[in-house]
Specification:
There is one protein chain. This protein has 2 domains: 272 residues, 3-Layer(aba) Sandwich (Rossmann fold); 73 residues, no CATH class. The protein has a 6-stranded parallel sheet with strand order 3-2-1-4-5-6, with helices on both faces. The chain has a 3-stranded antiparallel sheet with strand order 7-8-9, covered by helices on one side. Helix 1 crosses helix 7, helix 7 packs across helix 8 and helix 10 packs across helix 13. With 387 residues, it is α/β, with parallel strands linked by helices. The chain is built from 16 helices and 11 strands. It is elongated, with a radius of gyration of 25 Å. The two termini are 32 Å apart.
């Protein structure tokens, strides 16, 4: 693995000082690193990123949770309670392009590393902040977390049916979306700096990202005083068959119910007054979906998928992640990176962005805690001597 491979990547030459941990920040800085940025990850001496100890490691010194978010980075372990170490970090920032953190509001300021402090050191610096709810306002100092953002933003309350118990989304929806919004903000700021020569501050939050994901639903409420719930559409749903579940989406057709009935070998229910239009289908959804369920339960998943596809209806099997990871399309899309880490084999989901002239590769394995401390501090010393 070599950093030399980064030379022709879009972010080659961009230095990122990364104070982030867990997911929102690291998923952002990993994407920057994947596309060529030199990401220097500042970690707590002796403990490191919290995700290093989220779950017991399968093998080796770093668990897969940490590894999945921190490839292509360098790790520097410092005691930031030490004024000398803060001075060293400030030297790094003075020569950096981007500083990223996802601490609670006020933490970086108390260390003398807030935006105004960094701007004074380096007017070109792009300072990206990720929080739970925002840097100011009534919730600014509350602890932010993915599930809390789902709950506070209205996402958690949105269900296909009111009878379904409230629950959390089982993957880190808010962390990932906010991390990607942070990437976008940093790239936009780099473009603007190319025009103005000046850096700026960027702020994203889990809460705002969850609100933004509901832009269609929010517009319906604010502009039409009406609710829209894509999971509650009467011709769509998840249905059990004899040997597994499938999902069907009855949409984007002139008369999708008629075509569903053809696929399910049923009489045309679109001629029935109870189901003749969308309003009636909503009003009688339990009865309508009960008829669907009875039919789907009468044969296998592959049988019904073939029948639905013959009618050009949107459908798919419901699979678990283990199945998806070995799917031929996953492999064709080259969505998995494999390689050797620091003494252990590693496998990751790669960037979902495919560029014809910028291929993501495992240039650096996820680093051991403090693995690059001496290397980076020697670079800082060279910078000081050079000045």
């Amino acid at each position: 693995m070599s950093s030399d491979a980064a030379a022709d990547l879009p972010l080659s030459g961009i230095r990122v000082i990364d104070f982030t941990q867990v997911m929102m920040g690291p998923v952002c800085t990993q994407m920057l690193a994947d596309y060529g940025a030199d990401v220097v990850k500042i970690e707590r001496k002796g403990a490191g990123d919290l995700s290093r100890s989220t779950f017991a490691p399968v093998h080796g010194t770093d668990n897969p949770i940490f590894c999945s978010l921190n490839r292509n980075k360098r790790s520097v372990a410092l005691d930031l309670r030490d004024p000398q170490m803060i001075a060293t970090v400030k030297t790094m920032i003075a020569d950096a392009d981007v500083v990223v953190n996802n601490f609670r509001a006020g933490v970086m300021d108390r260390m003398g590393l807030g935006y105004e402090d960094c701007k004074a050191l380096n007017p070109r610096v792009i300072y990206a902040v990720g929080t739970g709810y925002g840097e100011s306002g009534p919730y600014a100092h509350k602890g932010g977390q993915d599930v809390l953002a789902q709950a506070m933003s209205g996402v958690m309350a949105r269900r296909a049916d009111a009878s379904i118990p409230l629950n959390t989304y089982p993957t880190a929806l808010a962390d990932y979306s906010a991390g990607m919004h942070m990437v976008q903000g940093i790239l936009l700021a780099l473009l603007q700096r190319g025009k103005t020569g000046q850096g700026q501050k960027i702020s994203v939050s889990l809460y705002n990202s969850m609100l933004a994901m509901q832009m269609q639903e929010a517009a319906m409420i604010m502009m039409a005083d009406s609710e829209v719930n894509w999971a509650a559409m009467p011709l769509s749903g998840v249905f059990d068959t004899q040997d597994g579940a499938l999902v069907m989406v009855g949409a984007f057709k002139e008369n999708p119910l008629r075509d569903i009935c053809v696929a399910l070998e049923m009489d045309d229910l679109s001629k029935d007054a109870k189901f003749c239009n969308l309003n009636q289908q909503f009003a009688n959804k339990p009865e309508l979906q009960g008829l669907f369920r009875a039919k789907f339960a009468s044969n296998t998943r592959d049988h019904w998928l073939a029948r639905l596809e013959e009618q050009d209806l949107l459908c798919a099997p419901v699979r678990d992640l283990r199945e998806a990871l070995v799917d031929p399309q996953t492999l064709h899309n080259q969505m998995i990176i494999k390689g050797e880490g620091e003494g252990q084999p590693v496998s990751f989901i790669t960037s979902p962005i495919q560029m014809s002239s910028a291929t993501v590769a495992l240039r650096r394995a996820p680093p051991r805690l403090g693995q690059h401390t001496d290397e980076v501090l020697a670079e800082v010393l060279c910078t000081q001597v050079g000045k």
